[in-house]
């Protein structure tokens, strides 16, 4: 007998596709800075509608500026190992 899944067509025996959940972390931001973020959001002048949207955009822009975003598809090539022998023959 096929496996039945809730709210699914009884003729389907495959589980529903579930997107992997994103992991989230908390970061401490001083209240004075958050008050400024709230002012930007409340002004409705810059297109931000939430703290999360503003902070995510700001972090991505900084990571992009530093060369870390978007993430590389392939890991960085390892640096060649330095020789342990001394160059001057000692």
Description:
The protein is mostly helical and 90 residues long. The protein has a domain at 31-65. It contains two helices and no strands. The longest helix has 15 residues, at 51-65. It is flat. The model has no long low-confidence stretch (mean pLDDT 82).
Notable characteristics:
90 residues, mainly alpha
Topology:
Elements: H1 31-43, H2 51-65
Please identify the oligomeric state: single chain
In what range is the share of β-strand residues?
A: under 5%
What's the alpha carbon Rg, rounded to whole Å? 25 Å
Largest sheet: none
Number of helices: 2
Helix content, binned percent:
25-40%
Helix-strand pattern? HH
Q: Count the E strands.
A: 0
Low-confidence stretches: none
**Which outline best applies?**
flat
Distance between the termini: 78 Å
Mean pLDDT: 82
Main structural class:
mainly alpha
In short:
By secondary structure, this protein is an all-alpha fold. It is 31% helix and 0% strand.
């Amino acid at each position: 007998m096929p496996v039945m899944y809730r709210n699914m067509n009884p003729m389907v025996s495959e589980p529903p596709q579930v997107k992997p959940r994103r992991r989230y972390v908390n970061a401490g931001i001083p209240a004075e800075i958050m008050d400024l973020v709230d002012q930007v959001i409340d002004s409705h002048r810059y297109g931000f509608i939430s703290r999360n949207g503003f902070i995510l955009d700001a972090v991505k822009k900084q990571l992009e500026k530093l060369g870390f975003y978007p993430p590389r598809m392939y890991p960085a090539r390892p640096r060649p190992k330095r020789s342990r022998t001394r160059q001057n023959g000692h």
